[in-house]
Structure formats: C-alpha cells, structure tokens
Design goal:
This protein has 212 residues and is of the alpha/beta class. It has ten helices and seven strands. Mean pLDDT is 80; it is low at 131-147.
Length: 212
C-alpha cells in the first residue's frame, strides 16, 4: 500500500505505524508523480492520499480505471483528512475516491480499512452515512424487534473487537464462555448492521463500510 501525503511528518508517522503491524508493505510518497510511478511499477494495492495533496484529482482520475497500470484494474484510493470534515454525502466525494478516513484514526482502524478497500468496498466516517440517511435504510433491513442501542456488555464486546481481540481473548477479558461471546458478537453484528469482524472493528472506530 501507499501513503501519499504532502506533509512529511504525517506521512512518515502513518507509514511507520502501519508498517509496524506487519500486515503489508507500506510505501510513502510526497507527490502524485511518485505514487503513479509506484503503481506503474506493478503495485496494484491501496493508496491513502491526503485530500489536500497537490494534484490529488489527477491521481484519482488516473487510478480509477487502471490507466496507470497498463489498463488493469483500478487502484482504490481513500482520502485522508480532518476527522470533522463536513461532507455529508458519499456522492460528495471526488470521482474516483473509494472513501474518506480521518488521518488521526487509530492504526488498527486504518489497517482494517486498507483490507476493506482492497476487497472492493468503500469506507466512510459513520457520521457521514448517518447524515445521508443510509443508517436508517440499514436499520430497516435488521431483524424486527431488535433494539438498536447496544447494551453495556455489547459495547464492551464491540470495543474489544475494535482492538482486534479473538473470541477466546474477549471471553477471558470479560469472564464469559465461548458460546456467550458468540451470542454477544452476533447481537453486535445485528444492531450495528455489519456482517463480519472487520466491519465491526471499523464500526468501533467510527467508520462504516459501503458495499461496492
């Protein structure tokens, strides 16, 4: 994956934090030309680019359809910016962008987001989705009669999912049996409108997933 950011301190901090997780190779680039050269070298990964990177529009339009990689599949690009950026609709993202992430997001959340982007889904701050009414649509598809608010125990389970703990580790931390942990996780999935652990972990960090 590539971190593309015009500010060297932020760029290197993000790259080093993600690289330390050992889940993927992380390259860092200070301008659009460097990213495009990296992609043309055969890297079909994910790019996290600052929304204020000079030429970011060119980067999005070039990578969207795979033009930078000999006509191959497009490279997902998510924009990085301020956590409270006001852009209330997914449609408000620039063409070619696969999502938006706060640049001060927890490293584990960014890591989950990279894997999600690589799978072809989009990632957005949960507040954006709620503002567009998408959360209400998702709620209508949930099981009838299931209350949306999480119980205290369910919130504890969600937090631990966000930290990447396994079912066994969650059970040990909370003093619960394996079957009980599975039941709580199932309830968390239903109430949060997510389908798997990665989406639940992202939700715990205020990021929701939109299917491709």
């Amino acid at each position: 994956m590539s971190i593309a950011h015009h500010h060297p301190l932020i760029r290197e901090a993000l790259a080093q934090s993600l690289a330390r997780r050992g889940e993927f190779t992380v390259a860092s680039h200070g301008d659009v030309d460097e990213v495009l050269t990296w992609v043309r070298g055969g890297r079909r990964s994910v790019v996290l680019a600052s929304r204020n990177l000079p030429g970011v529009g060119q980067l999005l339009s070039t990578l969207k359809g795979g033009e930078a990689s000999s006509g191959g599949p497009g490279v997902p690009v998510a924009l990085l910016g301020e956590a409270g950026a006001a852009r209330p609709a997914a449609a408000g993202l620039p063409p070619g962008a696969s999502g938006y992430l706060p640049e001060d997001a927890d490293t584990s959340a960014l890591s989950h987001a990279v894997h999600t982007l690589a799978s072809g889904a989009a990632v957005l701050p949960a507040s954006w989705i709620r503002h567009t009414g998408a959360a209400a649509i998702r709620a209508e598809t949930r099981e009838p009669g299931v209350p949306l608010p999480l119980s205290l125990r369910e919130r504890e389970v969600l937090v631990l999912l966000g930290r990447g703990l396994t079912n066994q580790q969650i059970g040990k931390r909370l003093g619960l049996g394996a079957g009980t942990v599975k039941s709580y996780i199932s309830a968390v999935y239903t109430k949060c409108g997510v389908d798997n652990r990665v989406q639940a972990a992202l939700f715990a960090h205020g990021i929701e997933v939109l299917a491709a």
